[in-house]
Design brief:
This protein has about 300 residues and is mainly alpha-helical. It has one domain. The chain has 12 helices and no strands. The longest helix has about 50 residues.
Length: about 300
């Protein structure tokens, strides 16, 4: 891999790892719905502005032609998982969020077995069992006591990973028919539209301070808009399989950011659970061609 692309891959991993840190900061003030809305709306507008200023402006006819796909991708690949992770961030440390989210490729493969009639190999079966064991280790043996609210937050994180897995298979079905790289701004704006009905029922929890405002901007502009630009460039230059290795790096960066900025504890047992999840993820992604999306 060229050095420049390796640097971009590490930058993407660092950005997506930081997204869990920023959600942990923003969610207690804005709440899950407004955290998600600010993230996707600002990211969508930034991506739209970037595309309009570039040599490849948005293809409005294709946006209208594929509006159903944009809405489904926006909901299941963005709005739903972002909202669930923002909810989980009210309770869980950054490391928990990232490690549980790293199971998305596993769920993507398992959903593909049923939906796309893909074959179940011993490798995939072993990886699935290993992934479940890793999640159990993280939930039961980490530094957070497994109280009901913690288990509910963990369940929300797992459902978010399942949503990413469903979206990955939906993207497989759309491969070649929808130019997603040119329509990613549309998926973010569609997600923003999908979250609007939740806003009156999930109001802002507290007046955000400058730290929360900065974290919200970093989440939207850095961890989402800029990350997508880097992501699609990597898919184009090094291919989806190599780009998918970002899945293995994101939890490492998330654990690092949580320890550095929030003084979160990383126990040996939690690190063991993280290692087991990442091994299971590697067993999946080393044989996959479809890229996974952001937290």
């Amino acid at each position: 891999m060229p050095l420049a692309e390796l640097v971009r891959l590490l930058c993407l991993s660092a950005l997506w790892g930081a997204s869990f840190l920023f959600m942990r900061i923003v969610s207690p003030d804005l709440g899950p719905a407004w955290t998600t809305e600010s993230r996707v709306l600002l990211a969508g507008l930034a991506l739209l502005g970037w595309q309009m200023a570039s040599a490849a402006p948005p293809d409005w006819p294709k946006w209208r032609q594929h509006w159903r796909a944009l809405m489904l991708i926006g909901i299941f690949n963005t709005a739903l998982p972002f909202a669930l992770l923002a909810f989980a961030a009210l309770t869980l440390p950054v490391g928990y969020l990232a490690i549980l989210n790293a199971t998305a490729p596993m769920f993507g493969t398992l959903i593909g077995l049923v939906w796309l009639k893909e074959s179940l190999t011993r490798r995939k079966l072993g990886a699935a069992v290993l992934g479940v064991m890793g999640v159990a280790l993280v939930v039961r043996l980490g530094p957070v006591e497994p109280k009901p609210e913690v288990l509910l937050a963990c369940a929300a994180s797992v459902v978010a990973a399942m949503s990413y897995g469903w979206a990955a298979n939906y993207l497989k079905r759309l491969a070649g028919s929808v130019p997603l790289g040119k329509m990613v701004a549309g998926t973010q704006l569609a997600a923003a539209l999908a979250v609007v009905p939740l806003l009156p029922w999930m109001p802002v929890r507290a007046v955000p301070g400058w730290t929360s405002v900065g974290a919200a901007l970093g989440l939207a502009l850095g961890c989402t808009a800029l990350a997508y630009v880097i992501y699609f460039r990597l898919v184009r230059t090094i291919g989806p399989t190599r780009t998918l290795t970002v899945t293995l790096l994101v939890p490492m960066f998330a654990l690092l950011w949580g320890a550095l900025f929030l003084d979160e504890v990383i126990t040996g047992r939690m690190a063991l659970g993280c290692f087991v999840v990442l091994v299971a993820t590697w067993l999946f992604v080393s044989g996959q061609e479809a890229p996974r999306k952001s937290p």
